[in-house]
Design brief:
With about 625 residues, this protein is of the alpha+beta class. Helices cover about 65% and strands about 10% of the residues. Strand 3 and strand 4 form a beta hairpin. The longest helix is centred in the middle third of the chain and has 67 residues.
Length: about 625
């Protein structure tokens, strides 16, 4: 909690610094922000503490002592499990009542703090309301307390709310005395523009205005509203994060009703704009009553009516298109707001369940890794939490834009952790290791027909001279070696720069087919490695595309997806070439039955990163056997 509070201070230091705020106001600010940190702090705390405690138990053989007295892991976890369930229920009520209250108070306090200093209320690069009648925009602030302004644009409102007066200046300076209700704004090197509204309509169409130039212009702005700030005033009350479950449910119903009314209003508006209601009268038609007309509908009307109908239709289409364009933009905003309410509603329940699930991830994980304290458990907990947190962020960002179901997005990170919790709990209960790699590797080796040799150390060959290595290849059996040592001897000679061609012409008799096999496999290795690199680049850029897209970086997202598509396209080319090279190799050695089946080729295409090592091992073993068969 302390770490996240320090981060909060760092994030909002600009809103607090240099405003002569009372320490009580700053304490309120932090107190209002602390409850909002609970959704971040609590899951990480539960995960870390459960890994540390149960890891410490396992490291100090406490579980072994428990099991020797007949206490199982489930029984040891019973008390803490009940506590975590109770904590989850408490967390729901906390997120449903306390967090909305904190959000409500913190937002209003930030607004009130912002109004205590005019220069802080002027943000660079945008129009800022100052007082009742002024909108000020500056490109840059500098100097003590940001009192020096550059490229100042001021709109002055008239009593009826219109901006008819504009002041543009190159530089400006803010001056005000302590305890004064007047802010003095001094402008340098600028122009004063004022729209003139004549009485006659003809003169108004000319849009006349008055312009004056000044070297120095002094303005006095009333700051009575700024200097009389009530820090307990609550003006913002309708934000979705300020509502509890009941309030969110009512607000969602209201949004649905509003959307339905808007749709009916748009439909009525489009119908009225169509002007079709005035057509079809008896005087317009040239047909008898109760007749059925099957020809062109324009033939019912006379020429004058036809022309008028077409003109009205064109105007109605143009007008309707404008209305629909505006409504689509408004609908997207409404949809985003509605999705935010749904996400906020379900996140209150998801946080409570996440606390329970993360406990059943951390506790068995600690028992399996058998490490307590701050070191390894801290690293594992942070990695798991970051995965949980970022999955949730990406899901909710996609749901707000309507690209993902908002209900599923709220639960997505929790649902991802659920299978992991079940898996780890089962492993810890059965007193088995964290992973059994053999259960994954062995079926794949059998499926791909890979037979790995025993782990024999052939380092002794490095001390042999060329003649000794050739002798090992020729007389391996009489020297007490296995057949595999012949291939390792050839590899050692090749590492010393002695090619197979040189060996076949002098000391060894090697079938020329093996030389061709080596060239084919050399091409295969180059193609497969290049395919792997392109696959990884394409996959990485594809992930970056979704990251940039969810974080509203369209230009980077566009570049990432384009380069990813190019990378995957080249990958397809080299993947096919590597498959063709492997087919050519097996055809050359007359062992077509060992070729990759169509199933593994199809599976290998999207999962190349995982199948590449197994394909490489299989090719290597078959090349080795071909080499041994080629020795005469």
């Amino acid at each position: 909690m302390l770490i996240f509070i320090l981060q909060t201070v760092w994030l909002y230091i600009k809103e607090l610094a240099g405003k002569d705020l009372d320490p009580i106001i700053i304490a309120k600010f932090l107190a209002y922000f602390m409850p909002k940190l609970i959704p971040l702090v609590l899951p990480l705390t539960i995960l870390l503490s459960s890994i540390m405690v149960f890891g410490s138990f396992a490291e100090n053989y406490e579980f072994a002592a428990m099991k020797s007295t007949g206490i199982s892991l489930q029984r040891a976890m019973t008390g803490l499990s009940l506590f975590i369930v109770l904590l989850g229920v408490t967390t729901f009520f906390f997120s449903n009542n306390v967090i909305p209250w904190a959000e409500y108070n913190s937002l209003n306090l930030r607004i009130n703090i912002k109004n205590t200093k005019p220069s802080a209320a002027i943000a660079e690069g945008q129009f800022n309301p100052i007082g009742n009648n002024f909108n000020i925009k500056v490109s840059e602030k500098s100097g003590d307390n940001d009192r020096l302004l550059k490229d100042v644009v001021i709109h002055i409102k008239t009593p009826n709310g219109k901006n008819t007066k504009t002041i543009v200046a190159n530089n400006g300076e803010l001056k005000n005395k302590k305890d004064s209700d007047i802010l003095q704004l001094i402008l340098f090197d600028g122009n004063y523009y004022e729209d003139i509204i004549p009485k006659s309509l003809k003169s108004r169409n000319k849009k006349p205005f008055a312009k004056s130039t000044f070297e120095k212009y002094i303005m006095n702005i009333d700051l009575s509203d700024f200097n009389n700030v009530d820090f307990d005033e609550k003006s913002q009350t309708d934000k979705y994060s300020m509502l509890d479950v009941v309030g969110l449910d009512k607000m969602m119903d209201s949004l649905i009703d509003k959307q339905q009314k808007d749709q009916k209003s748009v439909a009525r508006n489009l119908f009225q704009r169509s002007s079709f209601a005035k057509y079809g009268k008896k005087t317009d038609l040239e047909t008898e009553n109760d007749s059925v007309f099957k020809g062109n509908i324009l033939d019912i009307l006379d020429t004058k009516k036809k022309s008028k109908l077409i003109d009205d239709a064109l105007r109605a289409i143009t007008s309707s298109k404008q209305v629909l364009t505006q409504r689509i933009a408004a609908y997207k905003i409404t949809k985003t707001t509605f999705n935010k309410h749904i996400i906020s509603f379900h996140e209150k329940f998801a946080l409570a369940i996440a606390c329970i699930i993360l406990f059943f991830v951390g506790a068995p994980l600690g028992a399996l890794i058998r490490k307590g304290g701050i070191g390894l458990p801290m690293v594992i907990a942070i990695l798991l939490f970051l995965s949980y947190h970022f999955i949730g962020i990406f899901a909710t960002n996609s749901a707000k834009n309507g690209e993902f179901n908002p209900v599923l997005a709220s639960w997505f990170s929790t649902l991802v952790m659920l299978p992991l919790g079940i898996y780890l709990t089962k492993r810890a209960t059965a007193d088995r290791g964290l992973f059994e790699v053999g259960n994954i590797i062995e079926p794949l080796k059998k499926a791909l027909n890979i037979k790995l040799a025993d782990n024999v150390d052939y380092k002794f060959l490095a001390s042999y001279k060329k003649d000794e290595l050739v002798d090992v290849i020729k007389n391996y059996d009489t020297l007490g070696h296995d057949e595999a040592v012949r291939f390792e001897s050839i590899k050692t000679l090749k590492q010393r720069g002695i090619s197979i061609e040189e060996l076949s012409k002098t000391e060894l008799e090697i079938n020329e087919d093996y030389i061709t096999s080596e060239k084919i496999i050399s091409n295969y290795k180059k193609q497969s490695k290049l395919a792997l690199i392109l696959y990884l680049i394409g996959l990485f850029l594809l992930i970056l595309f979704f990251v940039f897209k969810n974080n509203k970086l369209p230009s980077l997202a566009s570049i990432s997806i384009k380069v990813s598509i190019v990378s995957f396209s080249i990958y397809i080319f080299y993947y096919i070439k590597s498959i063709m090279s492997s087919f050519k190799f097996y055809e050359h050695i007359n062992k077509k039955e060992k070729q990759k089946s169509i199933i593994y080729i199809i599976l290998g295409f999207p999962l190349y990163m995982f199948v590449y090592p197994f394909f490489s091992i299989k090719i290597k073993e078959d090349l080795k056997q071909n080499c041994l068969d080629s020795l005469k």
